[in-house]
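Thanks for the sequence, V.! I ran Transcription regulator AsnC/Lrp ligand binding domain-containing protein right away. Repeating your input here for the record:
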Amino acid sequence: MVTPRPLHAVVRLCHGPAPLDFDHLAARCPAVRSGLALAGEADLELLLACTGPRELHAVVAELRRAGATRLRVELVLRTLAPAATPAALPSPPLLIRSAAP
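Predicted structure:
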């Protein structure tokens, strides 16, 4: 049976002097679904799917123990996807000029 994970969150964090080991975090925390290494204000962005608030707090605590210095947690309200593209419109007919006068 698959455990339901209705609480989704995005965590942006900065790591300390040593980078965080994403593979280790993902192995220790089943809530970690994916991650992005960033250049900018944050060093790493994690997408989490948690069983509830208790697991979310546990993942944040684990990130702090792993060396995260600044954490910003944002709850996902809904997932957006682009609408399906309409069927391709037919191309207008090509005008072909005759070479004869």
